[in-house]
Design goal:
- The protein is α+β, with helices and mostly antiparallel strands.
- 37% of the residues lie in helices and 20% in strands.
- It folds into two domains: 311 residues, Bira Bifunctional Protein, Domain 2 (BirA Bifunctional Protein, domain 2), CATH 3.30.930; 82 residues, Rossmann fold (3-Layer(aba) Sandwich).
- Strands 1, 5, 6, 7, 8, 9, 10, 11 and 12 form a nine-stranded mixed beta sheet that branches.
- The longest helix has 20 residues.
């Protein structure tokens, strides 16, 4: 049995170097904006995800009963865990909070390109403020990350909208509550399903042809002036979108952003601004998405707090970076390879390696009897900078030989000066 569970991944050392590089860039962008890191257990109470029925995510849980007959699940997303943590210290947290995490998440769904059954997701959230500038701050975090890994506004677009757009349209058609949430789930799949299937699913919710036509018409709008004309009057959706776009302009990020009314996000808890990041060529799935969710806590039995955030998976972005030729070539980081050229000198090699490590050099000690030819190949493979040779001739003078693998120069040094 040499294969992992379907939909999961093994990370060999070369894979881990890339993963750590990605996570370091996630972390740097968040820290640069004043966010603090947190974490939570991968195992949660199943009820944390099933309180809100009807969402696709409830059908994708890795859930089971533990030995204490408790219904538990592997987390499919981080936001409910964050909400639980905020509720646990209700009134005791200084607001607003700016937190981020890079958790591993699990969903039982069909595996496809850019989508496994486990993935890591960079979550960045702001709680405790209704200011729309918080949404702009999140977009600034994203742009900082993208620029840090070499991507530009010519590669990516951040499409923004507001859930109130669809809320106002459907509200005028007297579509509210659970029916509104179910409609959002279907509408969120419009770019993945044929128009016939979307119309059929909307019809199954009880929407007539005029309602479906109105929904499709509004969601096709990509210009703010057209949206103003369509919604008319004193639209809260238009007002909030204009405020956000102005804030984004103040950040100097306008070239990254476009208005797109079709962005609604499928999760029912979104209440205001929503956004998704896509590659300009449309070759990949959405790279990340998020928005404002001011009423999540009440669905979990708590008192609502304004909140906004995004989730950013690790799989699609790596595919995009690879396609763009932006994946770095990362070596092991090992600086020195210490090898004894005689079994009798192995203890001396250990002492030499320990001395180098004490001076904070990254050292690989060769543990077996190996020939020089092997040592050179090994050094080339891992990108080491020096070979430190403990040989009988040099040791007779209490010295070791150092070969600089970049310049080819050789030198000898007293072991006491190592």
């Amino acid at each position: 049995m040499n294969q992992g569970v379907r939909g999961t991944r093994d990370f060999y050392p070369e894979d881990m170097r890339l993963r750590n590089w990605l996570f370091d860039n996630f972390t740097y962008a968040a820290l640069l904006h004043g966010f603090e890191e947190y974490d939570a257990p991968v195992l949660e109470h199943e009820e944390l995800y099933t309180r809100k029925q009807g969402e696709e995510i409830t059908q994708q849980l890795y859930n089971f009963q533990d030995k204490g007959d408790r219904k538990v699940a592997l987390r499919p997303e981080m936001t409910p865990s964050l909400a639980r943590m905020v509720m646990a210290r209700a009134g005791g947290l200084a607001m607003p909070i700016k937190w981020f995490s890079i958790p591993q998440c699990w969903r039982y769904e069909r595996t496809q390109k850019g989508r496994g059954r486990e993935h890591y997701q960079w979550n960045v959230d702001i709680w405790g403020t209704t200011e729309i500038t918080a949404d702009a701050e999140l977009i600034s975090v994203l742009v900082t990350f993208f620029e840090g890994v070499g991507l530009t506004a010519e590669d990516l677009v951040i499409r923004i909208s507001n859930r109130k757009v669809l809320e106002e349209v459907l509200g005028s058609l007297d579509i509210k509550g659970d029916n509104f949430a179910k409609t959002c789930i279907i509408v969120d799949k419009m770019d993945k399903l044929s128009s016939n299937i979307v119309e059929e699913q909307l019809s199954d919710l009880g929407h007539d042809s005029k309602t479906i036509s109105t929904i499709q018409s509004i969601l096709g709008i990509k210009d703010m002036a057209d949206l103003q004309n369509a919604l008319k009057g004193d639209s809260m959706a238009v007002s909030e979108l204009n405020f956000l776009l102005n804030a984004i302009e103040s950040y100097g990020m306008s070239e990254w952003v476009e208005f797109d009314a079709s962005v609604v996000r499928g999760l029912a808890y979104y209440t205001g601004s929503v956004f998704e990041v896509h590659d300009r060529e449309g070759k990949f799935r959405a790279i990340c998405g998020g928005g404002r969710y001011d009423k999540l806590l009440s669905t979990l039995g708590g008192k609502d707090l304004p909140a906004t955030g995004f989730g950013f998976g690790d799989m699609v972005i790596m595919e995009l970076l690879s396609e763009k030729g932006l994946m770095p070539e990362l070596l092991s980081g090992i600086e020195d390879i210490v090898i004894s050229l005689s079994p009798e000198l192995r203890d001396i090699a250990v002492m030499v390696a320990a001395s180098l490590r004490d001076s904070e050099r990254m050292v690989d000690l060769v543990l077996e009897n190996k020939k020089m030819k092997w040592a050179f190949k090994h050094a080339e493979r891992i990108g080491a900078k020096r070979l430190v040779l403990v040989g009988p001739e040099e040791w007779s003078r209490k010295m070791v030989k150092i070969k600089d693998l970049e310049t080819g120069e050789e030198s000898e040094i007293l072991v006491s000066d190592i």
